[in-house]
C-alpha cells in the first residue's frame, strides 16, 4: 500500500485560486499573491481564515463572493481534511459582535451564518476610518495589511540588452558569423528593458497625523519588504531616514524599530523645512530624480505655506510623479482649505485619500501604475 501524496499548502491554495478564476472571477496574479500572503498572515491551519482571506483578496463583487463560496465548498471538501487535520478553532472576533454557540452540536446553518458575518465584518472593516477604530479593531486590521498587493512601478532602461526580438544587433550578429568562420548563423537582436522605478515615501508623523501614522508605516514596510528600490522618511519637526528599520520582516517589530529611530513622533509640523532638507540631501544628484514620491500628510504647516509650495514645486521638477495622500481627503465635506495643502496641491500629480484599508489598496495601485 502506497502513502498518498499530500500537496504543499501553497500549491493547494494556488490551485484553489485558479479554480475560482475558472468559475468566472477575475483573479489576477496580484490577487493570487495577496491571497497566499493573507492566509500566511492569518492562520493556514484555520479554515475560516482561509475562507475570509479568499473573500477579501480574490473577490470584488457580490457575484464574485457567491462563485468563490461555491468553489470553496466543492474544492476543500476533500483537500481540507488532509491539509487541516485539527478541527477549526472558535474565534473571538475583535471587530464584530459575533458569538458562536458553545454547543458542539450546533447545526451547519449556524456555522454558515457565522462565516457570512465574519466576511461581512472584514469587508466593513476595510472601509472604516482608521482614526475611529478601537485598539482591538486596529489589531485585526493590521493582519489584513498582508493582503495589499504591492509591486514597483517600472521605467524603460536607456540601455539595450540582448533579446529574442527587437532591433537587429549588427555587432553581435557579425561576431556570431566570425565565430562560425563565415557560416550563416542566427541574427542577434537587442531592445530596451523595463526596470523598477524608485519609490520614496515621506510620512508626516506630527501630532495631527498620529492616528494614521502607524498604518502608513505598515504600508511602507510592505513596500520595503517587496524588494524594489524604496526609501522611507518621516517628517515632523525634522527629517528622519527609516528605511533600514523597516527591513525587519515582522511588521510589529519593524514599527518598534522605526519608533526608536524617529525622535519627533507626535510633535510639531514643519513640512517646508523637512522637504527642503530632503531635497538638499537626496535631490538633484540623488535618488529623487525620476522617482515616484509619495507625501503622506494632512497639510497642516507650522511655518509659511508659500515655502512649502515652493519645495513641492522643486520636487515636482525632479520626480517622475508626486502623489499627495491626505487621510481627510476621503471624508464627507472635506475641502483642501489648509494653507499648506492649498499651496502644495497645484504641484502634485495625484491627490488621494488615505483613511482606510480600501484607500491603501487604491494608493498601491496608483504607485504601481505610475
UniProtKB/TrEMBL annotation:
| Residue ranges of every copy of the VWFA domain listed in the record | 196-362
Q: What is this protein called?
A: VWA domain-containing protein
InterPro entries noted in UniProt: UCP010256, Uncharacterised_CoxE, VWF_A, vWFA_dom_sf
Output the SMART domains linked to this UniProt entry.
VWA (SM00327)
Taxonomy, superkingdom: Bacteria
Amino acid at each position: 500500500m502506497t502513502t498518498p501524496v499530500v500537496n504543499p499548502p501553497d500549491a493547494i491554495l494556488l490551485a484553489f485560486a485558479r479554480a475560482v478564476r475558472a468559475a468566472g472571477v477575475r483573479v489576477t496574479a496580484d490577487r493570487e499573491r495577496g491571497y497566499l500572503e493573507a492566509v500566511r498572515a492569518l492562520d493556514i491551519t484555520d479554515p475560516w481564515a482561509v475562507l475570509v482571506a479568499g473573500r477579501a483578496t480574490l473577490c470584488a463583487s457580490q457575484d464574485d463572493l457567491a462563485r468563490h463560496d461555491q468553489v470553496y465548498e466543492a474544492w476543500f471538501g476533500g483537500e481540507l481534511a488532509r491539509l487541516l487535520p485539527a478541527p477549526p478553532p472558535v474565534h473571538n472576533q475583535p471587530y464584530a459582535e459575533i458569538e458562536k454557540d458553545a454547543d458542539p452540536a450546533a447545526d451547519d446553518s449556524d456555522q454558515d451564518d457565522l462565516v457570512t458575518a465574519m466576511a461581512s465584518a472584514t469587508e466593513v472593516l476595510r472601509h472604516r476610518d482608521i482614526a475611529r477604530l478601537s485598539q482591538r479593531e486596529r489589531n485585526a486590521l493590521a493582519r489584513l495589511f498582508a493582503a495589499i498587493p504591492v509591486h514597483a512601478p517600472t521605467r524603460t532602461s536607456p540601455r539595450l540588452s540582448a533579446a529574442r526580438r527587437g532591433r537587429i544587433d549588427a555587432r553581435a550578429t557579425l561576431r556570431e558569423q566570425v565565430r562560425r568562420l563565415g557560416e550563416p548563423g542566427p541574427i542577434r537582436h537587442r531592445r530596451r528593458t523595463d526596470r523598477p522605478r524608485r519609490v520614496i515615501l515621506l510620512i508626516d508623523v506630527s501630532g495631527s497625523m498620529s492616528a494614521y501614522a502607524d498604518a502608513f508605516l505598515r504600508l511602507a514596510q510592505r513596500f520595503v519588504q517587496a524588494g524594489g528600490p524604496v526609501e522611507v522618511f518621516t517628517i515632523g519637526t525634522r527629517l528622519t531616514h527609516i528605511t533600514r528599520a523597516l527591513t525587519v520582516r515582522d511588521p510589529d517589530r519593524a514599527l518598534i524599530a522605526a519608533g526608536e529611530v524617529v525622535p519627533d513622533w507626535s510633535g510639531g509640523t514643519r513640512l517646508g523645512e523637512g522637504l527642503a532638507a530632503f531635497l538638499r540631501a537626496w535631490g538633484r544628484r540623488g535618488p529623487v530624480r525620476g522617482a515616484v514620491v509619495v507625501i503622506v500628510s494632512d497639510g497642516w504647516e507650522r511655518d509659511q505655506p508659500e515655502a512649502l509650495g515652493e519645495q513641492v514645486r522643486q520636487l515636482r521638477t525632479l520626480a517622475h510623479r508626486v502623489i499627495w495622500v491626505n487621510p481627510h481627503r476621503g471624508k464627507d465635506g472635506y475641502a483642501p482649505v489648509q494653507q499648506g495643502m492649498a499651496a502644495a496641491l497645484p504641484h502634485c500629480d495625484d491627490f488621494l485619500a488615505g483613511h482606510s484599508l480600501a484607500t491603501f489598496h487604491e494608493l498601491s495601485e496608483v504607485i504601481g501604475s505610475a
